[in-house]
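Contributing: when you submit paired examples, paste them exactly as shown. First protein:
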Amino acid sequence: MAVALTALQVAGTVATAAQARSTAMDEQAQQELNARLAETQALQRDTLAREDLKRAESATRAARGANGLSGSSPNAAVLFKERRDASDRDRLIARADDRQRAANYRTAAKSAGSRAKWSLATGLVKSAVPIGQYAHYRRAA
C-alpha cells in the first residue's frame, strides 16, 4: 500500500512538473509572437506616419498653389521643415515605444523559457520527497 501511494505521489509530482513545463513553453511561444507583432505594428505605424506627412505636404502645396502663393518661398520652406521635424520626432518616439514593447515581450519569453527548462528538473527533485519518506518508513518498520 505504501509503495502504491509513493508511486502515485511521484507520478503526480512529475505530471504537475510536465504540465508546468508545457504551460511555460506555450507562454514563451505566445510572448515571442507578441514581440513579432509589436515589431510589425511599429513598421506599419511608421509607414502610415510617413504617408500622412506626404499627404499633408501635398495638401499644403495645393492650397498655396490655389491661392497663388509660391511653393519655394522661405515661408513655405520653414513651414514644411517644422512639419517634417515634428513628424520625425513623433515617429522616433513611437518607434522607441514599439521597440521597448517588443523587448519587454522578448524578456517575458526568455523568462518563460527559463521556467520551462527548470520546471521539469524541479518536479523531479520534488518527487524525491515521497521516495525519501517511503525509505524512512521502510527503515522504521
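Second protein:
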Amino acid sequence: MSIKFEELANAKPKIQQGGDFNYFDKDMYNRAEILDFIGNEEFISEFFPNGFELNLLYNKDLSKPRKIYQEKQIYNFLKNLEYRWKIIVKNELSEIEYSLNKEEVNEDNIMFNTYKCTSAIFFILPINSNGKYDTVNSHQQVTRIIRKLKLMNIISCIDETYVHNDIGSRSKVYLFNYNALNDYFNYCETELDMKYERKKSVNLDLSSVKSLSSNFRDLQRLYDRIKITNRCKLTKPDNVSVDEFEAYIKLVLNEKYPAAKSVIEHDELYDNCLYQDCKPTADYSIKWNKKYNTVIKIGFREGFSAFTSTSKADRYKYCDNIGLKYNYDVTSSIPRVAYMLKHHVWLPMDIDMYQVYIAKACELSGTDFIWTPKIREFAKREVLPVMFDRHNYKLDRWNAVKDKWEYVEDDYKLAIEYIRKAGEELSGDWNPDLFVAESYIYQQVRKTLEQNGLKVVQCFDEWNFNKPIDKDILDQVVEICATDYCKEFLK
C-alpha cells in the first residue's frame, strides 16, 4: 500500500484560538529576536497596581522546616530563570541597563519574544517544567511557585491564553517585577542565609548504602531489573527510605553503564567552562509514581544548564556575544547513534538518517521514494517518538497530533507503521540508554576540541567555538570518538 508522505508533509498545522491551546508553526515567529519594548511606569503599573515593592506577608511560620524548604525551592527556581534571562538578553539584565531604543514592535510576535522596559521584563514562564529546571520536578510544584510569586508581587500574568511553546511546555506570558525580584534575592541571601547552587550528582560506591545493612538483601533482588528505560516498575521496599533507594539504583546504574559514570564524573570535575550558564551537568533522572512508592522511569542524558530550554537562535546570539562565532552540529544525531549501536559503525555525516528511514519505509511499503524539505520535517517530527514508544505507538501518536495537524488518520497511521518497521530493520529496538552513548561521544568531542586550544560551548549534538575549523576535520573528530566508544563499550 502506497504511503502518502507528500500529502502528510504538506498538511497545515491547526491553530486553535481562544482559551484552550494555541499551536503555532515555528516559522510563524522568531522567539530569539530581542526587541526593546517602549514601556513606561504608567503602563507597568496596570499590572502591578500595588507598586513594585516585594510583598512577604504571604509567608508565615518560617520556623517550620517545610516552609524553609519551599522558600529555598522558590529561590532556586528564580535563580535558574535568571540564568536563562542572561542568555536571552545577552547579559544586559545583570547590568540592569534598560535601553529605550525606539524600535517598532511586531504585534504578531508580542506573545513569543522577551522584552525589557524600565522596571520589569516580559518572560514566557513554563507551567510544566518538563524536567528543564533543576529545582522542580512536577506540574504541581511549578503551579504552586507561580501562585506564590503572584502573591509576592514578583510576577503578573499579562495574557491568560495557554500557548504550546518551542521547548514543549504549556506557557503563559508574565511580566516580572525586576525590582521586587532583586529584593527577594537579597531577603533570601541575608535573612535566610541561602546560597544558590546548581544540582550536583553524587559519585556512589558501596559505602553510600552501607547504612542499609539488613535491608540490602531486599534491594539486591531488584538488581537485574534496574536499567535505563522509559517503563519500569521498581517498588521501594518499606524498610528503605527514598534517598537510600535512589542511591542504590544509581550505584547499580554506574556499574551497568560505565560510560554514563564516566560522563558524570568528568562533568563533576569540569572547570574549563566560559560561563556557568553553559556548564554541562549529567546525572540519572528517576521518575516516581509516589502513590505506589514505585520508580516508573529511569533516564540519562548530559544537560547544559540554561541552554537546555532556550531556542537555537537565542543560543547563537549568546555565543556570538561571547566570541564563539563558529558552530558545528551532527545531522540526525539520535537515529545515527541508534544505527551505530546496532552495527558498530558511524555513518558518514553526508548521509541524512531521516532520509534513510523514509527511503527504507518506502521500500518496505512499495512506495515511490520522494524527498523534500517538508518530508524531512515530517520525518524529524515523527521518527523519534515512534521509535521510542514500545506499546500503542499508533494510537498514542494519533492522539498527540490529531488536534495539531490536518492529517488524514489512515494515511498518518500507515506512514508511522512503516517508519517503525524501517527503524526496527535499520537500528533495532530503541532504548533510552542510547543517550548514554550520545552523551559520552559528544563529551569526548568537546574534550578533543578544548585540548586543541579552542574555547567551546556545547549543547547536546552541537558545539560553538572561537576559531574556524574545516568541516571535514570535525567530521573526522566525531567519527573517531564514536569508533572509540564502539571499541571500548560495544565489545
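If you have annotations for the second protein, write them as plain sentences, like these:
The chain has a mean pLDDT of 75.
The chain has three domains: 1-13+310-491, 31-190, 206-306.
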